[in-house]
């Protein structure tokens, strides 16, 4: 049997599961290098060195009107193992109501309970040492798997001393409780985040170390490196009437090029919005206007403060996941009501810009999102504290309403396509207002004892640019000049009903096709409050199960 073609973070896991059957031939395609010994990949303390290096795609966005017309850069791994080789390695799953929301959006059978065994199944959690526990590392044993492939735990260089208790005490004064272990579906409060790291060797654990290197010598698994997939060669296409595409007699393609690239491969193959495809001279084979839409990333900003003592060369995975109530305080109910009253207008704005579904569809997604924020009270912001030469507080919004897109734009002289990546940060005013409120909460945190005792003042932005009593307008101008992407892009080939703009069904199969699936961050329909990779692995593991199941069903028929 011909197997799928795929590439990385998620693709390697799927390839691992499918090639376990020696009769299934699996071909992986990866344009990037095999940089398995690159110390900037393997040594977690070097992880910030990878941006703008040869193993980073460094995708540029279109100029962003709400960011002073700046283009922003999306870092993404150009390497076997994809972005799991260059990311921040933090490992926090998402919140129960968010995954349950996928089912409400049409992803039948996808909810917290069905994903939970896969979250645990892929994990090889190692308990913290007594020193790490003293440094704040917590664990609820029920939340973790011990026999999966991906090493999760705390790095040996976890900072000891009293910093974590100081941060915890300060957050508690601000009404944010301490969460021992945020991996059980409630992502809320101050926590010390576990990482994807092998505690014994101290090295990064990635899709490649977990799912590819150990099985790369399987005779039925082939990696084609230095080659990119630009389009799916569609043979035997049956036209619109039956809306069916066949790639070859028995083969199946699994596209896993990440949320910034997967939609463009579909478009180049004739799957997408016919009006866009026609303009590019591409024959439309499957009408799926949702391809490349529903783009969601999280705006990200770093404020830095002068520490009393510098802290070089250690890990400081300290973060608070804050809810609307933590951020807006007494104003929360008013903001919830005002936000609800605006959902229709925002849906109209998004529908008019994206033009792939009408405002009713967007509004129903926004209602779910509003429920998550104000009724289910999931976290809306993550605020991290990293002491080094400065105390850097990086923070990002978790559930923005703005929706961007990624599409083929025009054909270049060499026959490939220019791509437009348009995240549309702050398209919706609430996103900017809540982002500024997060900024203010960060400031308040570092002005509250005992954390305040750790710093002597703000370094960036400087006090003459943003004074401590800065107005919203002053913060707004700083936010416009300094916001960058968090690189947690998802949703551009969403697993949702077709009516809502979905691209894949609950078996991850592209609507209107027979043997094309997508398994990467593109299929996750809504932002997640944790970090993406744990959820991507769980989705990929469940997807592999479904693929194997549907194959054996069709073999039985
Ligand atoms: C700097 C950074 C820090 C992050 N920090 C964290 C973190 O701490 N924790 C966390 O959970 N998540 C984090 N993330 C997010 C997470 O790493 C990504 O969301 C996730 O790895 C995406 O997985 P994917 O399978 O969708 O795509 P990727 O892992 O990006 O894989 C896509 C693959 O497709 C390949 N490719 C590209 N074009 C083509 C083509 N035309 N044909 C074939 N192959 C192609 C790429 O080279 C790549 O190997 C971070 C991301 C970045 C960039």
From TrEMBL:
Keywords for this entry?
A: FAD, Flavoprotein, Oxidoreductase
Q: Which Pfam families match?
A: GMC_oxred_C, GMC_oxred_N
Checking SUPFAM superfamilies in the record gives: FAD-linked reductases, C-terminal domain (SSF54373), FAD/NAD(P)-binding domain (SSF51905)
What PROSITE patterns would the database entry show? GMC_OXRED_2
Q: Which residues form the Glucose-methanol-choline oxidoreductase N-terminal domain?
A: 258-272
Residues the record marks as active site: 488 (proton donor), 531 (proton acceptor)
Which annotated residues bind FAD? 9-10
Cofactor(s) demanded: FAD
Q: Which InterPro entries match?
A: FAD/NAD-bd_sf, Glucose_Oxidase_domain_2, GMC_OxRdtase, GMC_OxRdtase_N, GMC_OxRtase_C
Keyword DNA-binding listed? The answer is: no
Residue ranges for the region (Disordered) are: 28-64
* Recorded superkingdom: Eukaryota
* GO molecular function list: flavin adenine dinucleotide binding; oxidoreductase activity, acting on CH-OH group of donors
Q: Where is the composition biased (Polar residues)?
A: 51-64
Q: Which family does it belong to?
A: Belongs to the GMC oxidoreductase family.
Name of the protein described by the UniProt record: GMC oxidoreductase
Naturally occurring in which organism (per UniProt): Lophiotrema nucula
């Amino acid at each position: 049997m011909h197997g799928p073609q795929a590439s990385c973070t998620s693709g390697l896991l799927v390839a691992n599961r499918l090639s376990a059957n020696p009769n299934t031939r699996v071909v992986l395609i990866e344009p990037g290098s095999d940089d398995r010994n690159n110390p900037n990949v393997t040594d977690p303390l070097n992880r910030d060195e990878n941006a703008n290096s040869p193993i980073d795609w460094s995708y540029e966005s279109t100029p962003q009107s709400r960011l002073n017309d700046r283009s922003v850069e999306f870092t993404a791994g150009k390497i076997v193992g994809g972005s799991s080789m260059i990311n921040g390695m933090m490992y926090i799953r998402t919140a129960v109501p968010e995954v349950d929301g996928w089912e409400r959006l049409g992803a039948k059978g996808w909810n917290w309970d069905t994903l939970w065994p896969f979250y645990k199944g892929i994990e090889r959690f190692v308990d913290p040492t007594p020193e790490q526990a003293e440094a704040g590392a917590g664990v609820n044993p029920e939340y973790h798997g011990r026999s999966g492939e991906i090493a999760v735990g705390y790095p040996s260089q976890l900072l000891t001393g009293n910093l974590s208790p100081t941060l915890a005490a300060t957050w508690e004064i601000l009404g944010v409780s301490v969460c021992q272990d945020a991996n059980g579906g409630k992502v809320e409060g101050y926590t010390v985040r576990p990482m994807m790291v092998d505690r014994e060797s101290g090295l990064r654990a990635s899709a490649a170390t977990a799912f590819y290197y150990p099985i790369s010598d399987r005779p039925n698994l082939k990696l084609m490196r230095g080659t990119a997939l630009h389009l799916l060669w569609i043979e035997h296409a049956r036209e619109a009437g039956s809306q069916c595409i066949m790639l070859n007699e028995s083969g199946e393609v699994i596209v896993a090029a990440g949320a910034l690239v997967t939609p463009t491969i579909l478009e180049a193959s004739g799957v997408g919005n016919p009006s866009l495809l026609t303009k590019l001279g591409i024959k439309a084979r499957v009408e799926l206007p949702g391809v490349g839409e529903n783009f969601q990333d999280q705006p990200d900003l770093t404020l830095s403060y002068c520490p009393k003592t510098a802290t070089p060369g250690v890990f400081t995975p300290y973060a608070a996941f804050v809810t609307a109530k933590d951020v807006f305080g007494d104003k929360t109910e008013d903001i919830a009501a005002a936000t609800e009253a605006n959902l229709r207008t925002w849906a109209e704005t998004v529908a008019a810009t994206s033009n792939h579904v009408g405002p009713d569809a967007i509004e129903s997604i926004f209602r779910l999102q509003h429920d998550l924020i104000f009724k289910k009270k999931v976290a809306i912001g993550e605020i991290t504290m990293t002491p080094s030469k400065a105390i850097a507080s990086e923070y990002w919004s978790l559930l923005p309403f703005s929706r961007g897109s990624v599409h083929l734009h025009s054909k270049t002289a060499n026959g490939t396509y220019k791509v437009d990546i348009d995240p549309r940060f702050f398209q919706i005013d609430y996103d900017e207002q809540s982002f500024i409120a997060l900024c203010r909460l960060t400031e308040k945190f570092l002005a509250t004892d005992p954390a305040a005792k750790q710093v002597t003042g703000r370094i960036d932005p400087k006090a003459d640019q943003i004074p401590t009593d800065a107005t919203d307008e002053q913060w707004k101008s700083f936010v416009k000049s300094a916001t960058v992407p968090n690189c947690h892009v998802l949703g551009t080939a969403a697993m949702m009903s077709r009516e809502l703009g979905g691209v894949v069904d609950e078996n991850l199969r592209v609507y209107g096709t027979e043997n094309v699936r997508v398994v990467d961050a593109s299929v996750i329909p809504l932002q997640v409050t944790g970090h993406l990779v744990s959820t991507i692995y769980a989705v990929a593991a469940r997807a592999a199960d479904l693929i194997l199941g549907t194959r054996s069903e069709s073999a039985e028929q």
